[in-house]
Amino acid sequence: MKAEKYRPISLTSVVCKMIERIIRDKIVEHMESHNLFSVHQYGFRKGYSCVTQLIEVLDEWTEIIDQSDSVDVVFLDFKKAFDTVPHKRLIKKLKGYKIEGKVIKWIGMFLKNRIAKSSYQRKNLRMVTSRKWYSTRKCIRTRPIFNLHK
Question: Three-state DSSP class for 136?
């Protein structure tokens, strides 16, 4: 059994999750109001979805093919990209988007010396102090903030 096959989970209190949600909402509101999201960013945004993106790209491809031209497509999958955002790079990126003051200080303190732990059948596989943004797929805070990292 290899530890790297298992994703650490984030066990946080209800109060912490509420604060995370408030901060996430404010960051997303800031990004939306200042048009800081890429026009190509469909995932994890209100009013956008992967389905919307798929419909638009299929429409573009159909138009190209209708004009007797060809379409070349390359699909990439960056292994664990979502799970390993370096903290310092994330903070620098947030500051670049003018997310400052108490919010950036809180995020920095929240990320400092995080402990990530994996276990399987009640056996600990690993426990590390994290310098990267470990997350779970269902975690409130991570996805919109990950979008900023790209």
Answer: coil
Give the distance from CA 36 to its chain's centroid: 15
pLDDT at 134: 46
| Residues 65-118: tens digit of each pLDDT | 999 999 998 887 776 665 677 888 888 999 999 998 888 898 888 877 766 555
Q: How many angstroms separate the CA atoms of 94 and 90, rounded? A: 6
Q: Would you list the DSSP string of 3-16?
A: GGGS-------HHH
CA distance 107 to 94: 10
Contact 82, 142 (CB under 8 A): yes
| CA 16 to chain centroid | 18
